[in-house]
């Protein structure tokens, strides 16, 4: 990127603008994840708001925006925003900070691709609950072979396309000192190298990436219809985000993802105005006057619109200018009952896959159907997504029995069309901000948080609010660069006074509870084969040296308590930063999904990564098992 462009990005936020005054507040319109994240970052990146009160207005009776839940037969299910990617680091840290428990979805869903008459492709039905580790891994390997036989190398090319997008997106987690404050969405995307993906369709991008037409017409189409309700003609970046939503390791907050928004608002100490929508926003010079549907007025030094303006009736004076954008409505239908096997061309309900994806054909009335819960063999809870309302007559054809039906029509996300056009972040050139303009690039919980953090930093810099320093007891999320710097400083102390650090070589006893090597989930066929090789190697070591005796192993510490670790494209990534490793024998020939190290544990592996029986095989190592640290060795070459 040219130095002049970076200079403009850095200089823009410090233009002389009015300072926050004590008689006006900072107001956020919208209590969803974007608004809650903005409130959180504002209060955690500053020592004070210069006397201003932070107000959040939510027109509904509950915060969370589109992260809603429904109750069906006494059970609560996500209506929208139901999954979070393992590399969505803001969401993961929010959940950790708020003490919210995570639930991980299964990676062995029984998928069927339906063309309106029959299933053109199916994965294997999952093994029975309680099946052995060997049987589950064999099932996963056979599914990989089925996918490979039908779609060939396009699977690997699709994964490469998604991983390249994710690597660029991870730049949004860089330390604040190396990451500019952005005034436009275009600048955000250009800085990460993602802008080009918004100029062309997903189909065009995938064809250039070498995917065959069958993979795009079937597998890719199913994924985009499930995650965005749209075809492969959506813009490339939204499509890549959609494909990432089909990876393994996806998770959600137990009890509903809306708790992320609720917790962030509580932590920020914002004054929350529930069931109070904003009808108008008027520029009064040094502040804005917000008038609500209750007849109240509020003076706000800065105002943040954190809800899509496409279907919200807010009057701006003077008027603002944003490009027209159509929202994609998703009709979510929840049914307790039983699917009609005849409708799907099979002879028994037990032969209907648990997840039904559909092709882009005009006669198919829904995008997908998934089983949410099994009460018995003839009584289940289902969720359906469709682009139009499913009436009772159609539902009676799809289902042989219906005990309860709930319908929700929600403006889920923008209707994506390449090339995308982006509205401004600063709506009036002053202190009126729009978080949800970033949704024109991609819509997800994490993109809302990323956009919110940038807006918060923009407000802080343009109002010259006092920024919070790196204080040991400050309740804020430290940048990844800060954490890495602190870790390197701690490494100069011996084990007598500190805990293990990244890079240490340690002697340890293998946990006695390790009787079976647990390998990470790995859908690609190559990774499955390598995983099985690792298992054989681990079994050899355990058989020869034992796991219950006082035998000491030696490995390198790669992550410490609280760290996030993963392996992508042969690169070890800790807390979003790729480690520079000069000591490894070869690059890793496998991938490893992101995981967070629990308290009291470290992640260890040998330097010969592809043949190392370490934490990748049997999980995090309890620090209590470490018996010492390797310091140095002397060989003949040491004295030459």
Automatic annotation (TrEMBL):
Belongs to the peptidase S26 family. Belongs to the prenylcysteine oxidase family. One of its GO terms (cellular component) is membrane. It catalyses: Cleavage of hydrophobic, N-terminal signal or leader sequences from secreted and periplasmic proteins. This is signal peptidase I. The keyword Hydrolase applies. Residues 493-631 form the Peptidase S26 domain. InterPro entries: FAD/NAD-bd_sf, LexA/Signal_pep-like_sf, Pept_S26A_signal_pept_1, Pept_S26A_signal_pept_1_CS, Pept_S26A_signal_pept_1_Lys-AS, Peptidase_S26, Prenylcys_lyase, Prenylcysteine_Oxase1. The keyword Oxidoreductase applies. It is an enzyme of class 3 (hydrolase). One of its GO terms (biological process) is signal peptide processing. Keywords: Chloroplast, FAD, Flavoprotein, Glycoprotein, Hydrolase, Membrane, Oxidoreductase, Plastid, Signal, Transit peptide. GO terms for molecular function: prenylcysteine oxidase activity; serine-type endopeptidase activity; signal peptidase activity. It comes from Miscanthus lutarioriparius. It holds the Pfam family Peptidase_S26. Residues 1-22 form the signal peptide. Residues 139-464 form the Prenylcysteine lyase domain. SUPFAM superfamilies: FAD/NAD(P)-binding domain, LexA/Signal peptidase.
């Amino acid at each position: 990127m040219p130095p002049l462009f970076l200079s403009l990005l850095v200089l823009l936020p410090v233009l002389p603008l009015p300072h926050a005054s004590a008689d006006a507040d900072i107001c956020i319109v919208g209590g969803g994840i974007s608004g809650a994240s903005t409130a959180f970052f504002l209060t955690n990146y500053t020592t004070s708001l210069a006397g201003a009160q932070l107000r959040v207005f939510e027109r509904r009776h509950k915060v969370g925006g589109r992260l809603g839940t429904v109750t069906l037969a006494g059970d609560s299910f996500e209506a929208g925003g139901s999954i979070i990617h393992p590399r969505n680091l803001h969401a993961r840290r929010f959940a950790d900070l708020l003490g919210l428990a995570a639930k991980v979805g299964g990676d062995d869903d029984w998928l069927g691709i339906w063309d309106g008459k029959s299933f053109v492709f199916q994965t294997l039905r999952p093994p029975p609950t309680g099946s052995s580790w060997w049987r589950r891994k064999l099932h996963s390997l056979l599914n990989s072979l089925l996918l490979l036989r039908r779609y060939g190398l396009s699977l690997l090319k699709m994964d490469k396309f998604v991983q390249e997008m994710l690597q660029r997106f991870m730049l949004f987690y860089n330390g604040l000192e190396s990451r500019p404050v952005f005034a436009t969405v275009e600048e955000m995307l250009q800085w990460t190298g993602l802008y080009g993906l918004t100029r062309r369709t997903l189909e065009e991008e995938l064809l250039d990436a070498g995917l065959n037409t069958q993979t795009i017409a079937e597998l890719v189409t199913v994924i985009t219809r499930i995650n965005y309700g749209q075809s492969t003609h959506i813009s490339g970046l939204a499509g890549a985000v959609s494909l990432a939503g089909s990876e393994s390791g996806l998770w959600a907050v137990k009890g509903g993802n809306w708790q992320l928004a609720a917790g962030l608002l509580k932590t920020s100490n914002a004054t929350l105005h529930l069931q109070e929508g904003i009808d108008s926003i008027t520029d009064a010079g040094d502040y804005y006057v917000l008038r609500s549907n209750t007849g109240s007025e509020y003076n706000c030094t800065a105002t943040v619109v954190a809800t899509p303006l496409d279907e919200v009736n807010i009057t701006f004076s003077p008027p603002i200018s944003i490009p027209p954008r159509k929202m994609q409505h998703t009709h979510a239908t929840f049914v307790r009952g039983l699917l009609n096997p005849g409708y799907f061309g099979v002879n028994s309900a037990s032969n209907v896959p648990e997840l039904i994806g559909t092709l882009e054909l005009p006669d198919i009335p829904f995008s997908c159907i998934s089983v949410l819960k099994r009460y018995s063999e003839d009584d289940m809870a289902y969720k359906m997504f469709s682009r139009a309302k499913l009436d009772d007559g159609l539902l009676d054809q799809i289902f042989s029995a219906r005990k309860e039906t709930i319908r929700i029509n929600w403006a889920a996300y923008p209707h994506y069309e390449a090339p995308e056009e982006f509205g401004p972040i600063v709506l009036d050139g002053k202190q009126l901000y729009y978080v949800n303009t970033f949704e024109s690039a991609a819509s997800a919980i994490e993109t809302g948080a990323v956009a919110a953090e940038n807006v918060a930093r923009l407000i802080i810099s343009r109002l010259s609010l006092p920024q919070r320093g790196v204080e040991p007891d400050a309740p804020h999320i430290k940048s990844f660069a800060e954490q890495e710097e602190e870790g390197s400083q701690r490494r100069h102390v011996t084990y007598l006074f500190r805990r293990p650090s990244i890079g240490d070589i340690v002697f340890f006893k293998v946990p006695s509870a390790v009787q079976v090597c647990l390998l990470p989930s790995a859908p690609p066929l190559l990774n499955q084969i390598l995983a099985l090789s690792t298992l054989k190697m681990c079994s050899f070591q355990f058989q020869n040296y034992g796991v219950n005796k006082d035998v000491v192993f030696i490995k390198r510490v790669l992550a410490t308590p609280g760290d996030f670790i993963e392996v992508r494209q042969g690169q070890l990534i800790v807390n979003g930063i790729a480690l520079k490793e000069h000591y490894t024998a070869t690059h890793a020939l496998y991938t490893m999904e992101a995981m967070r190290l629990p308290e009291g544990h470290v992640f260890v592996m040998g330097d010969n990564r592809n043949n190392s029986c370490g934490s990748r095989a049997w999980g995090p190592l309890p620090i209590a098992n470490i018996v010492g640290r390797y310091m140095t060795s002397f060989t003949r070459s040491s004295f030459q």
